[in-house]
Structure formats: structure tokens, C-alpha cells
Sequence to fold (167 residues):
Amino acid sequence: MRKKILSKTYLRGVSEYIIEFSFNNDDFYLAKKKIIKTEPFTLSNGLKIIDNDYYIMEILPKSENYAIRVYFDEKKNIIEYYIDITNGCGLDEESSIPYYDDLYLDITITNDEIEIIDEDELENAYHNNLIDTDTYNRAINVKDTLISEIKNNKNKYLNMDMIKLLG
Fold:
């Protein structure tokens, strides 16, 4: 597992940004990042997800085993949803910043297309004893449940008004 603190992740090449946390919801932690100055970051498929004046919003449901990252362009149009399967989340003891324990397995949603990624990383972690059987099975079950919820439009977090949350 890899501990990911929200103030330190997913800002490759970003030299200036604004981050705002929301702790006033009993159900989830929320982090909003506005990119001020950066080198553009484009995925191998040509999709640009980070650039000047873009936004990244992260939702960490407190009682679920996943974290949702939403990438927005400068006009606040959603570019992509990126879901990390996790082993839980909380507030970091040193910084009091939300974090999650990444279990390697991820789901992306781009233009209503669902893709499961990094299954090989989950398998490697399991075979190298970085995670136990229960954790491995939980990651697979969470992935399967999420895929079903996404296909049936039943996930309460993905169904939230993302533009309203972003502000």
C-alpha cells in the first residue's frame, strides 16, 4: 500500500496551485486544487488532464474503500474521473491533511467509457506479500461493486453535482 496525502499528490510539474480542504461533511473529505502554473500533463491517449487554470477535486468517502479524483478543464468541464481503490482513509496524524492508503487498482471514466487499470500492480503486490489475501479480495470486490454502480448510475458520490462541489 502507498499512503497518499492529498496535499502532496497528483501535481506533477505544477509549480503553483491553490488548495482548499473541506472537513464539514460527516460523509467524506474534500480537497479542491486550482492549478495556477504548470507544465501541461497529457496522458498517453492524448487527453490533457493538467494545465494552467485547470482543477482537480478529490473526494474521500469516509466509509468506503475508494477515493475519487475529478479532473476539470479551465471552464470547469469534467475531463475524467479517476477512482483509486483504497484500504481506507483518514486524517494524517502529523499534518491533519486527509490521506488514503492506495491499493494499486484503479478505475477511470472518460467520455462514459470505463477502464480498469493497474490490475497488474495489485497482482504484483499480492504475490510479493505487500498485501494479504483479505486486502486483495476486498480490492477486487470494491472494483466489481464500483463497476456495477457506475454502469447502473447508482454511486452516490459520482452522482453528486461536481460543479457545485467545485464551487
